[in-house]
């Protein structure tokens, strides 16, 4: 009950944030030089054609009027239509959202499955060979550019060993999953570097706390101490970092989606910015903002479940 | 000796790092009888807690065991494997820690931390619960049924000390190492904890090693005492003997610096100077620099632990000079 009222309060708090973002997005896009009419009609369009097009899309309306029309439509869950694709923005986004969500899930999966054990091991074997190897790796993971790592993986596991599809999103779910593995690993390699370092340091710190020594004095087995005392506590700060990364993944997916030719939101956004497709950019950014806000909320809830000292209020 | 539950002989332990060697425990020997409370007294940093942690081998990786023996119920503890030690820890000898705020797992319920002591025992859920409730009652925690479901941060310092003792007692050990159980608590709670430990000793017949720097606590709880200074035991004997006839200048100084309740308004006496750094101990007596009886020999040679009375030993060349020294109690 307490948790439910907290969630409702947080959702209500999101409303003003959301509106501030609409204003920002709306104004900022219109600050970029270039205009949709030129992009849409091309170099050869005559002056009259351009003027006619501008009239049609309301280019000369005052900015506040354009904003209110946008807001009014938004309240009806109408994000407008794309100039480029001549399709409702909401359809374009819903079509691509699953790809980006799938990519995010894939990234988180590989980060957790590979990063958590490595970080824990590095912490346990502090200043021994495994620790050094893992730390050198994480330095590499931090500094290697993702587009390069992605291309290398693609070259190795897609072209040389034909294990994964190259630039092929496919039509069925298994095909989609196969298409998401390499991009997931690519992105995860970068995030993992941060997660491993953080987790390693937490494990080192917590191994030296008196509750771990006390646990040992109770005669508990090392396995139990590792799991229930060290890992459980070490994971808390790492969870926060991971969630921040998940939120920023949505923006970072642009590069990965381009490299792997995935039809996701990132790719859609990039194309829309280049063609000044205002309504798609607006819609996309709003979806990003809502997602980030919701991820933050979910993180806070998960955190309160992991750490009893944190209360939701 | 038959009725000694624990015998420590010539124990040495150093903390070794790249830059220095900290000689935390330097050749100490003592024994604890069945059912007695043995006090390990000394100022902060003299190695008291290190002794406790060495007994259970809970030391950090940089601690190097340099020799000696620890016999518990006649069995040598040094050199036991981790598996064998796990059977001793908590089940035979358990320990309560002085770090009240950080010594319990912050993310699991108190109940689970007590239940962990029942691992390996054939107990049903109901039996575990009943036993946990009884333990909390035993250490004087009100409404135990509700408290079992709570987390450590919901308890006050005194309550945490009680929980730590409850956990330490859960597997019915024969011996409790109580590391500064009263230090972080205010005086009324201190008194309650002292009474609690004393009553546990009576009802459960446990042997207790009490680590403290508080001579007042020692006098209320201990049957015998070892006074530690710079990683060595400088005087050991019955509580009564040591409080009435201290035969080591450091013990004498400690006793003299206790506040007296005779109404005198004199300033408290203190021992001038500070203890030597454990990474750079003098070759002679480590107390010599602060000692008013010190002579040439004290600076050049390490004094032996001399028998100065029945079951009373002092590590000093000049015990004779202290023969008339007065303690707190007149016998």
Summary keywords:
heterodimer; A: 313 residues; mainly alpha; MetI-like fold; 2 domains; 12 helices; 79% helix; B: 331 residues; alpha/beta; eight-stranded mixed beta sheet; 11 helices; 12 strands
- What would you call the shape of chain B? globular
Distance between the termini of chain A: 12 Å
Q: H/E order of the elements of chain A?
A: HHHHHHHHHHHH
Counting DSSP E segments of at least 2 residues, the number of strands of chain B comes to: 12
Chain pair with largest interface: A-B, 24 and 33 residues
Largest sheet of chain A: none
Question: What's the CATH H-level superfamily name of the largest domain in chain A?
Answer: MetI-like
* Overall helicity of chain A: over 70%
Structural class of chain A: mainly alpha
CATH topology of the largest domain in chain A: MetI-like fold
Number of H- or I-type helical stretches of chain B: 11
**Roughly what fraction of the amino acids of chain A lie in strands?**
under 5%
Please list the strands of the largest sheet of chain B in the order they lie side by side.
6-7-8-3-9-10-12-11
Number of helices of chain A: 12
What does this structure look like?
- The complex is a heterodimer of chains A (about 325) and B (about 325).
- With about 325 residues, chain A is mainly alpha-helical.
- Chain A has two domains: about 55 residues, no CATH class; about 210 residues, Orthogonal Bundle (MetI-like fold).
- Chain A is globular.
- The relative contact order of chain A is 0.14.
- With about 325 residues, chain B is an alpha/beta fold.
- In chain B, about 30% of the residues lie in helices and about 25% in strands.
- In chain B, strand 4 and strand 5 form a beta hairpin.
- Chain B is globular.
- The two termini of chain B are about 30 Å apart.
- The interface between A and B is medium-sized, with 24 and 33 residues.
């Amino acid at each position: 009950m307490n948790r439910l009222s907290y969630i409702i309060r947080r959702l209500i708090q999101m409303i003003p944030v959301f509106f501030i973002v609409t204003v920002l997005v709306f104004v900022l896009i219109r600050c970029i030089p270039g205009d949709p009419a030129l992009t849409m009609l091309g170099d050869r369009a005559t002056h009259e054609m351009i003027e006619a097009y501008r009239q049609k899309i309301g280019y000369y309306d005052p900015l506040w009027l354009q904003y209110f029309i946008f807001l009014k439509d938004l309240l009806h869950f109408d994000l407008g239509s794309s100039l480029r694709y001549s399709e409702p923005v909401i359809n374009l986004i819903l079509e691509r959202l699953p790809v980006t969500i799938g990519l995010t899930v894939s990234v988180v999966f590989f980060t957790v499955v590979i990063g958590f054990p490595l970080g824990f091991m590095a912490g346990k074997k502090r200043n021994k060979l495994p620790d050094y190897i893992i730390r050198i790796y994480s330095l590499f993971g931090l500094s290697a550019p993702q587009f390069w790592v992605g291309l290398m993986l693609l070259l190795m596991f897609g072209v040389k060993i034909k294990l994964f599809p190259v630039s092929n999103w496919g039509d069925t779910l298994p095909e989609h999953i196969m298409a998401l593995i390499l991009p997931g690993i690519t992105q995860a390699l970068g995030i993992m570097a941060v997660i491993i370092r953080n987790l390693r340091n937490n494990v080192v710190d917590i191994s030296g706390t008196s509750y771990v020594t006390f646990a040992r004095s109770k005669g508990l087995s090392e396995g139990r101490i590792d799991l229930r005392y060290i890992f459980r506590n070490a994971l808390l700060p790492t969870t926060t970092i991971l969630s921040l990364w998940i939120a920023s993944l949505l923006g970072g997916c642009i590069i990965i989606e381009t490299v792997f030719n995935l039809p996701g939101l990132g790719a859609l956004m990039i194309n829309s910015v280049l063609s000044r497709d205002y309504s798609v950019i607006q819609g996309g950014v709003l979806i990003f903002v809502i997602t980030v806000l919701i991820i933050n909320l979910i993180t806070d809830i998960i955190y309160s479940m992991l750490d009893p000292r944190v209360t939701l209020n | 000796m038959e009725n000694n539950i624990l015998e420590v002989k010539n124990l040495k332990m150093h903390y070794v790092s790249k830059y220095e060697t900290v000689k935390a425990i330097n050749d100490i020997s003592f024994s604890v009888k069945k059912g007695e409370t043995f006090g390990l007294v000394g100022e902060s940093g003299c190695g008291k807690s290190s002794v406790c942690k060495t007994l259970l081998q809970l030391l950090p990786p940089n601690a190097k065991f340099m020799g000696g023996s620890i016999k518990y119920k006649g069995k040598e503890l040094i050199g036991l494997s981790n598996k064998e030690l796990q059977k001793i820890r908590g089940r035979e000898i358990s320990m309560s820690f002085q770090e009240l705020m950080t010594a319990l797992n912050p993310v699991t319920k108190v109940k689970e931390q007590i239940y962990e002591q029942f691992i390996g025992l054939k107990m049903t859920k109901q039996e575990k619960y009943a036993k946990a409730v009884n333990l909390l009652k035993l250490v004087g925690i009100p409404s135990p049924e509700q408290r079992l479901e709570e987390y450590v941060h919901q308890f006050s310092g005194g309550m945490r000390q009680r929980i730590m003792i409850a956990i330490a007692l859960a597997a019915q050990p024969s011996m409790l190492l109580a590391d500064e159980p009263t230090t972080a608590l205010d005086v009324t709670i201190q008194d309650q904890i002292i009474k609690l430990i004393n009553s546990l000793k009576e009802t459960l017949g446990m042997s207790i090693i009490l680590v403290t720097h508080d001579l007042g606590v020692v006098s209320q709880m201990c049957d015998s005492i070892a006074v530690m200074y710079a990683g060595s035991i400088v005087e050991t004997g019955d509580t009564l003997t040591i409080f009435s006839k201290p035969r080591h200048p450091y013990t004498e100084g400690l006793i003299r610096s206790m506040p007296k309740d005779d109404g005198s308004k004199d300033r408290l006496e203190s021992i001038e100077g500070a203890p030597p750094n454990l990474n750079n101990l003098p070759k002679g007596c480590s107390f010599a620099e602060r000692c008013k009886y010190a002579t040439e020999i004290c600076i050049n040679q390490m004094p032996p632990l001399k028998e100065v009375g029945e079951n009373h030993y002092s590590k000093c060349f000049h015990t004779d000079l202290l023969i008339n020294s007065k303690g707190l109690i007149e016998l």
